[in-house]
Amino acid sequence: FQAEDGIRDVERSRGLGDVYKRQILDRIKKAVSLRKVKRVIIGGGVASNKFIKDFLFRNLEDVDLLIPPPELCTDNAAMVAALAYEKIKGGEISSLSVEAQANLGIGINK
Known about the structure:
Blueprint: H1 9-35, E1 39-41, H2 50-59, E2 64-66, H3 76-89
Parallel strand pairs: 1-2
Helix pairs in contact: 1-2
């Protein structure tokens, strides 16, 4: 399929994929530099993407990159739901008026 601007959907998708891979790589490199770590574990649905995995293994130097097999790389929504279940079991319940915070770490309660 050719879009009005002359760029085929396949080419557009490939370009977006390259942007995503580069963003993930840049974030990992920044975290490694800030935290001075030598080992990185990647999980979630993104870790099942063969193109992203291959790209990261080719471009991460001096880092021990660990990625579980695809059957253990579940969607992040499932992981968030599992975490919520454990918090509710432990008595941690928020009111419905709580504001969403996209970068809230697992160990932070407020």
